[in-house]
Amino acid sequence: MSEDLTIIKGNKTEQYESLIPQIKGLLDGEPDLIANLANITGALKEQFNWFWIGFYLVKENELVLGPFQGPVACTRIKKGRGVCGSSWERAETLIVPDVEKFPGHIACSSLSKSEIVVPILRNNVVIGVLDADSAELNQFDKTDQYFLEEILRLINF
Ligand code: SME
Asked: In the chain, count of helices (H) and strands (E)?
């Protein structure tokens, strides 16, 4: 695996297209889930510098905080609660342009303004979610959804 990340400027697609082969390199040959999730958050944080990026994993019917980059966050989220719990319940990616307009949004930080949550699916069951938060409104779109879903398919569970 490579431990150095090349960060590029460019549009969102170019940034993801530069990052994804590097994430593949980071995961290559490493079977440990936590190590791989941790490196994915590190790579995304370095390239995009979002306010918060991290995983929640389903454990005993709750989402429990996993590897992340950014300020400390809520540790447990119930199914159907907030953006993360809603993404889990619906088993679909949720893009939230303005978190204040999302009913039930869980504000781990008042600095978070927009958010995307992507479920991790294995055999049609959600086993966790990836959550990215931005300090700016309207930061996430279908391009993020497309590439983040692709990144999650790289992980071996
Ligand atoms: N805002 C999320 C909670 C997790 S934090 O943002 C890290 C939600 O509404 O589910």
From this structure: 4, 6
Cβ atoms of 126 and 119 closer than 8 Å: yes
CATH domain 12-153 topology:
Beta-Lactamase (3.30.450)
The answer to whether the beta carbons of residues 22 and 5 sit under 8 Å apart is: yes
Task: Give the model confidence (pLDDT) of 3-39 as tens digits.
Answer: 789 999 999 999 999 999 999 999 999 999 999 999 9
Task: Determine if ligand 1 sits within 6 Å of the CB of residue 108.
Answer: yes
Q: Closest ligand 1 atom, CA of 107?
A: 1
Strand ranges for 12-155 from DSSP E: 52-59, 62-69, 76-78, 94-96, 114-122, 125-134
Residues 72-117 have pLDDT tens digits of 999 999 999 999 999 999 999 999 999 999 999 999 899 999 999 9
Domain boundaries, the chain: 12-153
pTM beyond 0.70, yes or no = yes
Which residue carries 């949550």 as its tokens? 117
